[in-house]
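It is worth pausing here to work through a concrete case rather than discussing structure prediction in the abstract. The textbook approach is simple: state the sequence, then state the predicted structure, then interpret. We follow exactly that order.
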Amino acid sequence: MKNVLAVLVLCAGASLAQPALASLDLAKKARCVACHAVDKKMVGPAYRDVAAKYQGQADAPAKLFAKVREGGAGVWGQIPMMPNDPDKISDADLKAVIAWILAGAPN
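Step two, the predicted structure:
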């Protein structure tokens, strides 16, 4: 019985980790990581810095979605972020990545 319980706990933990890993993988697939990292500034801000800046803002997902699609500059400095269209990252994948970032970009 203890072995069965241990297996169930391990499986549950693995399934909880999948969305975070999947979202990081989506960010890598869309090449977002060329300019952004989880925990350090590169060309653009770290994902965790983005999460901290937008913490508690109900409209954060919509703001970030628009920022990724339209691009822009001035929020994090003068280096512009180029627009990223749905050919680079689909709406569904972008929403998943944004949710992951706003959750603190867990590993």
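Step three, interpretation. The domain at 18-102 is CATH 1.10.760.10 (Cytochrome Bc1 Complex; Chain D, domain 2). The chain has one domain: 18-102.
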